[in-house]
Write a structure and sequence with these properties.
The complex is a heterodimer. By secondary structure, chain A is an alpha/beta fold. Helix content of chain A is 37%, strand content 13%. Chain A is globular, with a radius of gyration of 21 Å. By secondary structure, chain B is α+β, with helices and mostly antiparallel strands. In chain B, strand 12, helix 3 and strand 13 form a beta-alpha-beta unit. Chain B is elongated and about 95 Å long. Classes of the chains: A alpha/beta, B alpha+beta.
Chain lengths: 486, 476
């Protein structure tokens, strides 16, 4: 069953050939066999999974099981699950057990989905490699000397390694799409406001969005169907009609207008990545899509704007980890200020500290106008760029990342690391939906193709991605580093 | 040198909602510590605030009642600071787009009525309450108050004396109470006041250096604190010194102010728009609906009482001190022959007895219609004013009609001249000394005889009649 998609597993369960317990056992066995090498999981919740699993018995007849019933999944460890420790891969939250469950997880569990465990990430979702995890980095199942990407590196690696058919991640500046690209899986960041953020530990509230990492576009559509929709507990979630995503996967992209942003190809892009993306564009052309260049003139300011807005929000969101109520408290501090300082110095890793400092600075009196406010103005310009482009095209296509997965320690300089998100960040600033699908290999490593859609037009986005995936044949690619597991 | 005092007030008022501003926790005073909390108000990782529309409605109603312009589009901001009273380490407030601006409140003033400007009114959440151990070894945190909706009302520096500050607070309090916006109970902390005060030479238009006063737990202490600070600053200036910009704490025990922090320690709150809350977008119809919720306000009621019932200004001021009393008077006066008599009874015996019983007009049992009836019984001579005072007390505690009480207790006034003459003869016969005194020119002796009459009739004799009767009989 390892490597089966959600549809295949659903059929096995519905036709009584397997039970949910079988799937859990299989998932736990795969983790047992290979997660020692991959290290995707921070916590495996096998007992809880068996307790919740259904159907227990092999079903007969044709029961109306929902798509996700009985199927295991993993959740990034910044998604709260009641009673299950949630760390955000940070030492400062060690021992924290949330009293509430994230709406996205709750919706999957209500549909019968079975949580297998919590997976690794860069601390508080800040990073592009999982090297910033406060516990240990996750390795790329395609090459254990390389990073899986981040921050949802654990989610991507767990799906790529065949531990689970799908995982939930979160995407603030590319944190679903970039690891999906690095690990050769599908990663979908929905439109801001489509999926409730309730229960997602906030990094940058105006950018964060929960989404699925899967082995196929079809699976992404199925999971999105399960988690999308307005939530009274998140005021930024939007009341829109949720379409039938699966029904939108017609394979037909005839006449679809595909825009290719000139500015993206003017950046420092790996030759092989460029070639794979060009091949993908050819494939789309052959399917009847109309490919044309578009301009996104403010692209070059996106990274700077992002690295002011996201840290500014983070500096406020992470202020609550002060040792008073959550997680670890520094002992024997003589006074309140010392307790705060020692707790936060010991509890946060260097990247989190860096961003808190940047964000605090950007919001400080006298600097607010020059940094935070200016960045918000740039954000508006970037949104307008996309609006103008979407007047001419239906989807925008680009590489997900400038390079395939890099080696551990290769990007020690934070700025070099930040550049990895250059194609994904503008999407978050504009609140748009985007998906990364595998578009081939370069030197044995997966390359990701990013498709960007109009706000709340996930149907067109998924239709285009699915049509490409059907002809590309890359959905069946499996990582090589864990031979016998696959 | 002559100085002018300049005072501006910042008032925090808890809104009377059933639940908190961003979560469903109950708003209750006096609950066990940390018993009215949930993951949202505790700021647990992953939770999000959702605005309680009732808080927004009350905030808008308050802004409109205080003649503010209300923004159709506003937003919430985060005020960032580290302190254990704030579990998120930021307070959700409104920074540069407050819900209401440019309002005013009329006060009686020192010599003439004055309009006191309101700079702004904004919505925010309350913080928790810290209790510091007297041994200095611990601080106890109660987070029940976290997330209770507040409005902060900032006045212009228009107040000129500590007493004007008191007048402003009294008026503000009654307006907000009338609107049902808040209980405004300072002793329970549902109304809190900080004051900014500075002095400047008379004639100068620029403001002097101010100090900010905190920790005043009653209107009286606001006045005390401001009076102390006014004199302290005057002394500093007269001695050729300069006032230092500081935040001061009023010490109730000594009646003095103590320095809490100076300007150099000022926080940088790093305000920025809260990304978890969408902008507040309102329609004119929504504001009109809020305006329709505002009842007749104290100033309007005072004017009406003076015009319609011919009350003196003092009476209308006292009677409108609470909405309950004002409405009570309104009903009783509309059914009475003499509204001023209703006012006298309310301001005198009724308020006196309420104070004695530690009750409010709304908690005692006599209805305003019943008070009007009591006054009619005095008017038509059924009972004397003296008897009425006793009957009134009975009515307020039993809720019975005056006529029923008079009937049961046989209190009907004796106005039968023949019956009274008979008693008077007995009294005169039994008090030859008094009669002698009267004849010797001692007017007082008449009173003694009248008193004896009242005693004989257990107070029921018609006093005017008795007076005339005894005088006539003595002359005979």
């Amino acid at each position: 069953m390892r490597g089966f998609g959600i549809r295949a597993l659903h059929v096995e369960l519905s036709e009584g050939r397997l039970t949910s317990d079988d799937l859990i056992r299989d998932s736990l066995a795969a983790i047992e066999e290979a997660d020692g090498q991959v290290r995707a999981f921070l916590r495996v919740t096998g007992e809880r999974a068996f307790a919740q699993a259904s159907p227990k018995e092999k079903v007969t007849g044709a029961p109306a099981l929902s798509w996700l019933t009985g199927i295991p999944f993993a959740a990034k460890d910044n998604l709260c699950v009641e009673g299950v420790p949630t760390t955000c891969a940070s030492r400062i939250l060690e021992g924290y057990v949330p009293p509430h469950t994230a709406t996205a997880v709750r919706r999957i569990e209500s549909a019968g989905g079975v949580l297998i465990g919590k997976v690794n990430l860069d601390e508080f979702a800040m990073g592009s490699s999982t090297e910033n995890s406060g516990f240990y980095p996750t390795r790329n199942p395609w090459d254990l000397t390389r990073v899986p990407g981040g921050s949802s590196g654990g989610s991507a690696a767990a799906v790529a390694a065949g531990f689970v058919p799908y995982a939930l991640g979160s995407d603030t500046g590319g944190s679903i799409r970039q690891p999906a690209a690095f690990c050769g899986v599908v990663g979908l960041k929905p439109t801001y406001g489509l999926v409730s953020r309730f229960g997602l530990v906030a990094f940058a509230s105006s950018l964060d969005q929960i989404g699925p990492l899967t082995r196929s576009v079809e699976d992404a559509a199925i999971v999105l169907q399960g988690i999308a929709g307005w939530d009274e507990r998140d005021s930024t979630s939007v009341q829109v009609d949720i379409p039938d995503y699966l029904a939108s996967l017609t394979g037909d992209v005839g006449g679809l207008r595909v825009g290719v942003p000139t500015e993206y190809f003017e950046t420092d892009m790996d030759r092989g990545v460029r070639d794979r993306v060009m091949e993908a564009l050819d494939a789309l052309r052959q399917l009847g899509a109309e490919v044309r260049p578009i301009r996104l003139p403010h692209t070059r300011y996106a990274l700077s704007a992002y690295y002011l807005i996201a840290p500014a929000e983070a500096s406020s969101n992470l202020a609550r980890y002060d040792g008073v109520r959550f997680g670890v408290r520094a002992k024997d501090a003589a006074n309140l200020l010392t307790m705060y300082e020692r707790t936060r110095s010991a509890g946060f890793g260097p990247e989190v500290k860096r961003r808190i400092l940047i964000g605090t600075y950007a919001l400080s009196s006298g600097y607010y106008d020059a940094y935070y406010k200016r960045a918000q103005q740039v954000r508006t310009l970037i949104r307008q760029d996309f609006e103008a482009a979407f007047a001419e095209v239906d989807v925008i296509v680009s590489p997900t990342t400038p390079t395939p997965a890099f080696r551990f320690g290769e990007k020690a300089d934070p700025l070099t690391m930040y550049l990895n998100d250059i194609y994904t960040i503008p999407v978050n600033l504009a609140g748009l939906p985007a998906i990364s699908v595998p578009c081939g290999l370069q030197d044995g490593l997966p390359v990701g193709l990013q498709l960007i859609g109009r706000p709340f037009d996930e149907t067109t986005l998924l239709r285009a991605a699915d049509a490409y995936e059907r002809v590309s044949g890359f959905a069946s690619l499996r990582p090589t580093a864990l031979g016998e597991v696959q | 040198m002559e100085f002018e005092t300049v005072i501006g007030l910042e008032v925090h008022v808890e809104l009377r909602t059933r639940t908190k501003i961003f979560c469903g926790c109950a708003v209750e005073f006096g609950a066990a510590p940390n018993s009215r909390v949930c993951p949202v108000c505790l700021g647990s990782p992953g939770v999000l605030p959702v605005l309680n529309e009732e808080a927004l409605k009350l905030g808008i109603r308050a802004a409109l009642a205080l003649s503010c312009e209300v923004r159709l589009s506003s937003k919430f901001d985060r005020k960032n600071y580290f302190y254990p009273d704030s579990p998120k380490a930021y307070q959700i407030s409104q920074y540069d787009e407050p819900i209401g601006e440019h309002g005013c409140v009329m006060i009686a003033g020192t010599s003439a009525p004055r309009s006191i400007g309101i700079t702004r009114i904004h919505l925010e959440e309350d913080a928790g309450k810290l209790t510091h151990s007297p041994f200095g070894d611990a601080s106890l945190v109660d987070l029940n108050r976290v997330g209770i909706p507040l409005i902060e009302i900032v006045s212009e520096p228009d107040l000129r004396t500590p007493d004007e500050a008191r007048q402003y607070l009294e008026e503000l309090k009654s307006i907000l109470q009338y609107c049902g916006v808040s209980d405004c109970r300072m002793e329970e902390g549902s109304l809190r006041c900080d004051a900014n005060i500075s002095l400047r030479p008379v004639g100068q238009t620029t403001l002097g250096t101010k100090t900010e006063l905190k920790n005043m737990n009653s209107f009286r202490n606001v006045v005390r604190g401001l009076e102390y600070e006014q004199e302290r600053q005057r002394a500093v200036l007269l001695a050729g010194g300069a006032v230092v910009q500081q935040t001061l704490r009023f010490d109730e025990a000594t009646g003095t102010t103590i320095v809490m922090r100076s300007k150099e320690d000022a926080h940088d709150y790093r305000y920025f728009p809260d990304p978890d809350l969408p902008r507040i977008e309102l329609t004119q119809a929504y504001l009109d609906a809020r305006r329709a919720e505002i009842p007749e306000l104290p100033a309007q009621m005072r004017a009406r009482f003076e015009q319609v019932y011919g009350l003196p200004a003092y009476d209308s001021l006292v009677l409108t001190s609470t909405q309950g009393l004002a409405r009570y008077f309104d009903v009783a006066a509309s059914q009475a022959r003499d509204p001023k008599a209703v006012s006298n009874w309310l301001m005198g015996d009724v308020l006196g007895y309420l104070k004695e019983m530690s009750q409010e007009i709304d908690t005692q049992l006599m209805r305003p219609e019943q008070l009007a009836q009591l006054l009619r019984l005095i008017d038509d001579g059924t009972i004397s004013t003296k008897i009425a005072k006793t009957v009134l007390r009975d009515m307020m505690t039993s809720g019975q009609d005056a006529s029923a009480i008079i009937e049961q207790q046989g209190l009907v006034q004796i106005s039968d001249e023949a019956a009274l003459r008979e008693i008077a003869e007995r009294v005169i016969a039994a008090n030859p000394k008094s009669v002698e005194d009267w004849r010797a020119g001692k007017e007082k002796a008449l009173g003694s005889l009248v008193g004896q009459m009242m005693k004989e009739t257990k107070g029921k004799a018609n006093p005017q009649l008795v007076n005339r009767l005894i005088a006539d009989m003595l002359r005979e």
